[in-house]
Amino acid sequence: MQLGSGAPYLIVAPVGQPVPLVLSSPHSGRSYPPTLVAQARLTPKQLRALDDGPVDELLARGCAIGATLIAATFPRAVVDLNRDACEQDPDSLADPASLSGLRATVKARAGLGVVPTRLLGEPIYEGRLSAAELQRRVAEAYRPYHAQLAALAADRRRRFGVSLVLDCHSMPTLPAAIRGERPIDIALGDRYGRSCHPTLVDAAERLLTGAGLRVARNRPYAGGHITELHGRPGLASHALQLELRRALFMDELNHERNGGFAAMQQLLGELTQVLTDALLDLGSARCRRQPPVGAAWALSPA
């Protein structure tokens, strides 16, 4: 499958003085390559169930505060940026023997590997994908995103002595709501304390709980590949996964904004500020606000 000439991610640079916070939105891409549409049994509208909706647009206030946003342009149906590059069920490929090191995790077995092949139990494609197709998507869409995200986080540590990757997603309303119980509104995933300093998680939870939301830590999601990859608190590299209940800001069926979108966008702007303040207060000698250097912040898609 050819992805076309478009970049696999977009960068929204900070407005004014930058801060050591990078916002990641890996599942908000909405550019469906024509070749994917031609290959798939399911329509783009059906495939959108894999995606997070306009989470990237929710994060605009964070960039106004000084954070930098990296957002995928291709949808999750092309490649799942929150999986390890080797996380794929060999049985989903026509020629798995041509690839080594594939990891058939529980999610991969369910068809939700680095290249999704099933959605709600239904096959996405008529047949199996080739190993070459998987490698092409990883090379053209997956690795560029991860390389840019790593570069952004490394730049923040170099400038400020510390960095935080806030990996942002959305989640469907969970079965608790169907049973008449109050659902979890926001899940904060820090890999059970391994990926992020507790000061940062505490600050996020206080703000979000104070806004009247039901917040849970590490349930139903504890953080995925991106959180695990960038969460090294001992090296001043922090990562926190943020899962927002979709009904708070969009229609869960058509992924269009609802009446709560503006309020959630405002709240995420406040969250960016609170996390930045907590990050800068961690005590790193180099963790200080600094003016941008030349054109280094005028980032553009590769």
Q: Report the helical percentage.
A: 25-40%
How are strands sequenced across the largest beta sheet? 1-3-2-6-9-7-8
Distance between the amino and carboxyl termini: 20 Å
User: In terms of quaternary structure, what is this?
Assistant: single chain
Which word captures the global form?
A: globular
Reading the helices and strands in chain order gives EEHHHHEHEEHEHEHEHEH
Sheet of most strands:
7 strands, mixed
Structural class: alpha/beta
Using the CA coordinates, give the radius of gyration. 19 Å
How many helices? The count is 10
Q: For the residues shown, what is the average pLDDT?
A: 90
Work out the strand percent: 5-15%
| Beta strand count | 9
What are the low-pLDDT stretches, counting only 5+ consecutive residues below 50? 285-302
What would the keywords be for this entry?
32% helix; disordered C terminus; 14% strand; globular; 10 helices; seven-stranded mixed β-sheet; two-stranded antiparallel ribbon; 9 strands; alpha/beta; 302 residues
Could you give a quick summary of the protein structure above?
The protein has 10 helices and 9 strands. It has helices at 34-39, 44-47, 55-58, 60-65, 106-109, 131-160, 175-178, 198-210, 225-230, 261-280, and strands at residues 9-12, 21-25, 68-72, 118-119, 122-123, 163-171, 186-189, 215-217, 237-245. Helix 8 (198-210) links the parallel strand 7 (186-189) and strand 8.
